[in-house]
Known about the structure:
Elements (H helix, E strand, L loop, with lengths): L6 H11 L8 E3 L1 H7 L2 E6 L9 H14 L5 E4 L3 H12 L4 E5 L5 H9 L3 E4 L4 H15 L2 E2 L6 H17 L5 E5 L4 H13 L4 E7 L4 H8 L24 H8 L2 E5 L1 H15 L5 H12 L9 E6 L24
Helix pairs in contact: 1-7, 3-4, 3-7, 4-5, 7-8, 8-10, 11-12
Bound molecules: pyridoxal-5'-phosphate (PLP).
Pyridoxal-5'-phosphate (PLP) binds next to helix 4, helix 8 and helix 12.
Amino acid sequence: MSDVPTLQTIYAAQERLDGLIHRTPLVANRSLSSWAGRELRFKAENWQITGSFKVRGALNKIAELSRDGVPGVVTASSGNHGQAVAWAARHFALPARVVVPVTAPSVKVEAARHYGATIEPCGERSRERLERAQVIAQETGYAFVPPYDDPLVIAGQGTIGLEILSDWPRVDTVLVPVGGGGLISGIATAIKNCRPGVRVIGVEPEGAAKAQQSRRLGHRVELESTASIADGLITLALGHLTYPLIERYVDDLVTVSDAAIQQALWLIMTRMKMVVEPSGAAAAAYALSARPNLALGTSVAIVLSGGNLDPMHVNLLAKPPSATPEAR
Ligand SMILES: Cc1ncc(COP(=O)(O)O)c(C=O)c1O
């Protein structure tokens, strides 16, 4: 197996996932296209099984682990990756353990438990949880499933790139949110190897601009702290695998404010009747807050990466956008 995801491993992932997960639609919307001054289409991974794109990478990875005969899988995540691993493990009849922070919202923990995982609360910091997951792996022989820095996980996420190209041949730009970088490095590997002329742009919260800073400084930067309402994007650093892929394939890295993300949540809910979570709306926030004359292409695909909005945060949807032209 290749140490780096390639177009071939992404095609292999596509075959493996075929029929197991949803082929999510690329949804057109006239109202938001006119708001943004260009044609926008939205890749609805908020409607994916488990509510996010994460199941693509988890399923691709766990399929291989299951073939290798591992006794079970373990991961450390309170969010979408934990749910995806729980779902994918159940599909292959493997036991799953998910280490979550003691502060994790009960709805997310319940979702992973509902998919059959054993939940293990541990500490508040991600380092503690990772260490605990490694200990579990050593004690049980379970395989650790990384959230983003793994060739099979990245290849699984890359299948989104193939679907966008096939559904919209004249797309010229693809906007993707960036956390640890697994989603965008998979999509960019797929797109640049099929259609190098299509631009791939990564979107980060202003309070978690690790990819943008890494590019600026020419090396993989680890931030001291991050903050944003987009809880899936506040990773401190890109991965060792994802960083070079992003440097090679991603054309541009931009940031959005939390206010722009909140405006996007509101616009997507009211104009598209779709619920997305803040991390899932970050790429849309860039297109919807960019000035119409900004060079962003004319046919822009936007990855709506997740829909698991915590019901405790539904108040985020209650803030209408400013109607002033400057807000656009
Ligand atoms: C909804 C959502 N979007 C985007 C991301 C970022 O994905 P990655 O860490 O692969 O960059 C995450 C990560 O958890 C997520 O949950």
